[in-house]
Design goal:
heterodimer; A: 327 residues; mainly alpha; globular; B: 537 residues; alpha+beta; 6-stranded mixed beta sheet; 15 helices; 21 strands; 20% strand
């Protein structure tokens, strides 16, 4: 397959996502209208009370005195030029708020994806090789325990053990706010802060990938092409690494792509436990403040992220399995 | 405070704080200097939405900005005004002119001098027009005159004694006119980059993480502040906040940032002390607001019966882990020293259950065969788990007198709309601040002009009477505090008699302080103070 074919495929796929994202935005906008209470009452509530004139003044400023369809139209028109609006609660443009949170979120999700895929795939592979031995049972039981334990509990226990009792790692946050390290020391510091949240969030997903990988390996090993390869005189090692492993990986990659969206959601819990300054926490706060501009911005950004990741997954398919064609 | 081991512990802590303050007073007068340096990490929960205390009074904002902005006045623990940016003030005999003499040589963090023009701008343009409480506080101010750079004269339409209690850096921050005067103050670019005259200047806010404040080297109080830096961290999870304080990664947290059951655990650590000082200008009172426009709650006997039914001691001991003091009326006992206080009907009387049953019989709600007189819904204020426990405790208490209460818990915007816009409730729990003067924090709950649909935290009970309205109107403009004191005694008696609101208890918040740091809580504003005197040991 030529590079130009791949490029034109990517462009076509990107164009196809525009109506999807537009639909997501409109649906979210309408859904949010159903939530009772509005930002003006929340702001007044936080202030411990405010005169009616103040609340009316706020509503007018937020454009909430307009009919819904006018508000929607204005929002979409601004979206065309990537103007995501202004968060009145946070007194800052939405885009600026989002971009500041995107980095930490991508960092945490990236490390989690890598760690959980690597460990999950290895665990699944080993379990499949040792199928029905005590080692396989051990791995499967561990995976089920990881899968079933609530994230916030794992997080708190890790803090208790590794931070408070052993004093190896910091409890929370993204960097040391007393030292304010710079340069390489800062990178090391952020790395140290990243360990516990990544481990916590990875636990759940690696269990998922391990189980999927194990099942997929076992399935592939029973297929005819394995018998053919064996008849050809290939060693077990060659069969596993060249054939079975690559094929078994496909469903895991598919799953990782689909799970990406839920990774965004799952990180809300981990972000709050570890005070990680990501998008999940921002979404959570803005929902309870009825900060709809900000919330819509977050939905928009996550929709874009999910679409892009799924495109990347499709491209990875092609690299993993040459039989799959783009087009 | 009850005579429990916890009670004894609290008293010891209080005593050590009082002693601590005495030592500072001596050393600051003497020659012994405090050791400079150090970074203090404060936990504030939740993260403030912005750093614009002149347009928003959301609690967390003040915990950060009170270190950046000064007020004209400061206050001592007896709520007596002390010099701040104003070195002195005089109130004219008719109460309609207040003259402030400003401090010379004060500069903002950008190096420009602080003058009377800044006072005029702050009061007339910023606070009187945009501050949620300032609109009421400065209602009577018609002009701020500036005969010279160091004199600001407030002209009032009517005397406003309460205004003198609202001039702290937390409540009425003095803003630089040359910064906030340019452009629309409501969406001002400096909303998240505050510039004041305070002991610490704003450096950076990384959202979701922290705000960093560094020492202001040109602060007007010589030798202050001692600390190099204050970092305010935001941690959404309560258990993590406890862990961070336990490990010593943060040094102070107040206002319920740490759950009451964790306070007990932290208090056993040798590195930590727990104080309940520093909430005297807030004075939160836990209450149950009764919808007096709705049957059967329009009947005063029913309202009184509900008031008698609530077991205040049980609630304080079991729901709030002993942090609280039974309320005797709408005004907190923190006002007792200033005289603006009164004691109402004693709803905690020993035979309260019998009285409640008798009142309900008289009101025409006899117990039916199943022991129930009538049913009602209790909307619990959505500010955390203890309110659900409070709901359950009162549910049991009301069942004792034959009222079957159903509990409802919604999120904040929905609850605000239900209670303050739709008036679609029977009874709701709540806690309101008395603030620094009854005019600011107390009148709003039962004055007729505060029955305002759509305005939050005002008179949701929708009860009022011409006599109580008249008393409040007189107390608002009475400059003589002895006369005000008489009016408030009468007001409290009348309000508790009519019982539109069940005043349950005065809430005391525990502040968790790392013992490495001293003199953090040195004003009645507590964590809303400026840490100018705080230092590391």
């Amino acid at each position: 397959m030529g590079g130009t074919a791949l490029a034109s495929y990517i462009v076509r796929r990107l164009l196809q996502t525009i109506p999807v994202i537009l639909g997501v935005v409109i649906l979210n906008f309408l859904l949010l209208q159903l939530a009772p209470g509005d930002l003006a009452t929340v702001l007044a509530g936080e202030a411990g009370g405010a005169p009616k004139e103040y609340i009316d003044q706020l509503r007018q400023r937020f454009g909430q005195d307009q009919p819904v369809h006018v508000q929607l139209f204005n929002y979409l028109r601004n979206l065309l030029v990537l103007d995501l609006g202004y968060s009145f609660r946070q007194s800052a443009p939405v885009l600026e708020l989002l971009l500041k949170r995107l980095g930490p979120t991508l960092l945490l999700m990236g490390t989690t994806l890598v760690v959980s895929l690597l460990i999950g795939v290895v665990m699944g592979l080993l379990a499949a090789l040792w199928v029905k031995t005590w080692k396989d049972h051990l791995i499967s039981v561990a995976a089920i325990i990881f899968y079933a334990t609530p994230l916030f509990w794992i997080g708190l226990m890790l803090i208790l053990v590794f931070s408070i009792k052993l004093d190896w790692l910091p409890t929370s946050g993204m960097e040391d706010v007393v030292a304010f390290n710079e340069g390489f020391a800062r990178v090391v510091d952020i790395g140290r802060h990243l360990v516990l949240p990544t481990v916590t969030l990875s636990m759940f997903y690696l269990a998922l990938y391990a189980r999927l990988m194990r099942a997929s390996m076992l399935e592939q090993r029973g297929l005819d092409y394995v018998t053919t390869a064996r008849a050809k005189g290939l060693t077990e090692r060659q069969i596993i690494t060249r054939h079975v492993f690559r094929n078994a990986l496909l469903p895991v990659v598919t799953m990782a792509g689909i799970q990406f969206g839920s990774l965004l959601g799952g990180s809300v819990v981990v972000e709050s436990v570890f005070a990680w300054p990501g998008l999940g926490q921002l979404a959570y706060q803005s929902l309870f403040a009825r900060d709809f501009n900000l919330l819509l911005g977050i939905f928009f950004l996550s929709a874009c992220l999910v679409v892009i990741v799924n495109l990347v997954v499709d491209v990875i398919y092609v690299l993993l399995d040459p039989r799959i064609r783009v087009g | 405070m009850q005579m429990t081991p916890r009670g004894t512990f609290m008293r010891t802590t209080l005593r050590s704080i009082v002693l601590g303050t005495a030592v500072v007073a001596m050393t600051s007068a003497g020659t012994l200097a405090q050791k400079p340096g150090g970074t203090l990490v404060q936990i504030t929960q939740p993260e403030p939405p912005n750093l614009a205390p002149y347009v928003s009074t959301a609690g967390p904002i003040g915990q950060v900005t009170a270190k950046i902005f000064d007020g004209l006045l400061e206050y001592d623990f007896n709520l007596k005004p002390q010099p701040g940016l104003a070195e002195s003030f005089t109130v004219a005999p008719d109460g309609k002119t207040v003259t402030f003499k400003l401090r010379r040589g004060v500069t903002f963090h950008d190096g420009k001098p602080f003058t009377s023009a800044d006072v005029q701008f702050t009061i007339m343009e910023a606070l009187k027009k945009n501050h949620p409480r300032g609109i009421a506080t400065f209602k009577e101010v018609t002009a701020v005159e500036t005969p010279d750079e160091m004199t600001a004269i407030f002209k009032l339409a009517n005397p406003a004694p309460y205004m003198m209690m609202a001039l702290s850096g937390y409540e009425s921050p003095m803003l630089p006119k040359h910064v906030y005067g340019a452009g629309d103050i409501k969406t001002h670019p400096n909303a998240n980059n505050p510039i004041g005259t305070g002991p610490f200047k704003f450096v950076e806010w990384r959202r979701g993480e922290f705000v960093r404040l560094d020492k202001n080297p040109t602060y007007w109080r010589a030798g202050r502040p001692f600390l190099d830096r204050v970092v305010v961290r935001f941690i959404a999870d309560a258990s993590t906040r406890t862990a961070v304080l336990e490990k010593g990664e943060a040094h102070i947290a107040g206002f319920g940032a740490v759950p009451y059951n964790d306070v007990k655990k932290l208090a056993t650590l040798p590195s930590v002390e727990v104080s309940t000082k520093g909430y005297e200008m807030m004075s939160p009172v836990v209450e149950m607001v009764i919808n007096t426009k709705k049957a059967p709650f329009d009947n005063v006997k029913v309202r009184q019966a509900i008031n008698y039914a609530v077991d205040r001691k049980f609630v304080i001991d079991n729901v709030w882990f002993g942090f609280g003091k039974a309320a005797r009326g709408p005004i907190s006992s923190n006002f007792e020293p200033s005289g603006l206080f009164g004691v109402g009907t004693d709803y905690a009387a020993a035979d309260r259950i019998d009285r409640a049953n008798k009142l309900l019989d008289e009101a025409g709600f006899p117990k039916k065969a199943d022991g129930v007189r009538f049913e009602m819904v209790h909307d619990m204020t959505p500010y955390g788990e203890e309110w659900q426990r409070f709901g359950e405790a009162t549910q049991q208490a009301l069942a004792q007198v034959g009222i079957k209460a159903t509990l409802r818990y919604e999120d904040v915007p929905k609850w605000l709309k239900r209670v303050y816009t739709d008036y679609d409730f029977d009874v709701t729990s709540n806690f309101l601040y008395n603030l620094a003067d009854p005019v600011l924090g107390v009148h709003r709950s039962f004055h007729s002009d505060r029955i305002r649909k759509g305005t939050v935290f005002v008179n949701a009970a929708q009860w009022s009477s011409p006599e109580t309205d008249a008393l409040m109107d007189k107390a608002t403009v009475e400059p003589d505090s002895a006369k005000r004191s008489v009016m408030y005694r009468e007001l409290v008696a009348k309000v508790t008699e009519a019982s539109p609101v069940v005043y349950v208890h005065e809430l005391t918040f525990p502040t968790i302080i790392n013992k490495q740091f001293k003199d953090l809580i040195d004003t009645p504003l507590g964590i809303y103070g400026n840490y100018a005197n705080a230092h590391r040991q």
